[in-house]
Please model this.
Amino acid sequence: MRRSVDCPFSTQPDVVPPIWAGRHDEVNDWVDIVRPRRVDGLPERPRLILAEAGLGKSTLVGYITENAKERGDLVTGQLRIPLGADPLAILASALLDLSGEIGFSKADTKIGNLLARVTSISAKGVSVAMREQETPEAFAALRELMIRIGEAAAHRKDTVVLIHLDEVQNITDPAVLSQLLIILGDVTSKKIGVTTASNMVIERYLPIAVYLTGLPDFWDMASARRGATFGRRFDRRVLSPLSDEDLEMALQSFVLDGWPVPDEQGGTMRIGMEPAARDAILDLCQGEPFLFQLAGYHAWYAGDSEVITRAQVLRGWQTAKREARDHVERILERLPEKEAQMIQAMATLAPEERALKNIASEMGYSNSTQVASFAKRLDATRGLINRGANYSFRHRALEAHLVRDWPELSEDY
Model:
């Protein structure tokens, strides 16, 4: 029986779904590089994960956060920044929670004074501190508390402090953004002295790892305000859609062994999936993690048999397709006029005709150099296309929507 509480697909934003697909490079980067180097006191830049909506950037770092919690690390969790909110006040509140987890005592005069200063920031926000001419004090307090937390983690065995700030494109105040990036850059490059087992004092970096996630626009915003320093201090990763191989691997155990669910006799049964059903989900979602979960979610509820069939996937997609269309159209609507025009021009050309000069001509330009900057942004900043002798779509759902009327299903699908 397919009960709602057993559905392994999740369309809830920022929730790590039971069926995980892809992102091996990014997860391995945390497991094999970021965390080990930070644990050993070695330098490693904060990670900046950018992508269009639906590509799973927040979910990815949620997966990394769960891994960190399992290892006993000190984790802030997802600190989501709403538009107009004070990110430093949100960070201050999370740092206070970590201080409690570590066991910092207000009875210690220095710690008590520091916690009181940061509590004030958390309560009234940095914007108030700015008006009250307390800005240097406010930023110094946050920085000092982060250092104290890092020092406490350094004295624990195999422990990292993991900080995750999400929706960073919503930080629109240039002064606050600048201060936030400075604080994060400072604490991740801060060295402290520690005593080894042989009573030698050596310098090491604080075991603090930082992940920022948001829309691609943040790169332009932060680079314009922080310049080359920002680019050097943060390691930027722009996510692309998943490959069909990644998605097929995620569903392979579903096809081979079935998904375990309780039966009506107090035991366990398994819900299987036809290979044809798996292939239909792969084709419909076009590599988008959100659409992958959406297609699987509605297929689960499209029947009650012990095997999810292709017919059930297609039946469920009839319910899901409106949301899928809206999802892709929102990406198009967010694009600046010239970038949207370039995407439309690419879609009108056959794949073998998508040379830059032909795209420029389709846009009404006489020279390909006139559109090169738009192409660079769509590739390097947004991750929607691939440049080359012939241009191609990296965001496959976008291409499918513009070229073949996806997400509609043809009569012979």
